[in-house]
Amino acid sequence: MLVPALMARILASRARRPMPVAMAIAILAALLSLAIAPPLAAQSDKTAADKGQKNGKLPRFASLKSEDVNVRTGPGPRYPVDWKFVRRDLPVEIVAEFETWLKIRDWQNTEGWVHSSMLSPRRHVMVVGEAMSELHKKPENDAPVVARSEPGVIGQLMQCEGAWCRVQMRRVSGWIKRDAIWGVYPDEDIK
User: Fold this and answer.
1) Which of 15, 19, 110, 136 sees the fewest Cβ atoms within 10 Å?
2) Which of 100, 122, 129 is nearest to 113 (CA)?
């Protein structure tokens, strides 16, 4: 290993002049930190990648994995819980990341921090607005309507093309206008 060889060389060169013990210990500690730090840093980066952290651009959408998600005032368990989400599959927007913590924003622009294990990359959308929205058989205004949905209904996002997105809501699949849902960006194509 490199550290013992360097230490032996330093001590041999100092044989003519005695080195204070404190200086020898300081040099050894510095050399050990240089030898150990890079492998540990590489290992922690690999661990972070294995856990799926830092896995995409910001902002991006995700969905809640659970019906009971604590939203905290900061990125860590020491921060107080500000509120709870109680709706599984609710779409949220990830706006920041810190280690295993993600800062999210909901459809009402309320923000807070959740642990990354509470989110799923599986995409869902929520119907927004004040009126019923129609799901069409095809992505066309004059296509037959297969269902109508109230604001607040959540569906799985399947595909988006232009002004339309195909969603699955319970057992019904259809195309809905992109501006009638929250959980997808205006210019985002999903195949």
Assistant:
1) 15
2) 100
This model's pTM is above 0.90? no
Please give the distance of CA 80 from its chain centroid, rounded to a whole number.
Answer: 20
**Is the same domain home to 142 and 129?**
yes
Angle between helices 21-50 and 2-13 (to 10 degrees): 160
Pair (176, 150) in one structural domain:
yes
Token duo for residue 76: 């860590």
The dihedral of CA 5, 8, 14, 20: what is its sign?
Answer: positive
Peptide bond into 39 cis (omega under 30): no
**Residue range of the domain that includes 43:** 2-50
84 and 135 both lie in a single domain: no
Q: How many structural domains is the chain composed of?
A: 3
Render pLDDT for 2-59 as a digit per residue (tens, 0 to 9): 445 544 555 555 445 555 655 555 555 554 454 444 443 333 333 333 344 455 799 9
Contacts of 137 (CB under 8 A, 6+ apart): 143, 144, 145, 146, 174, 175
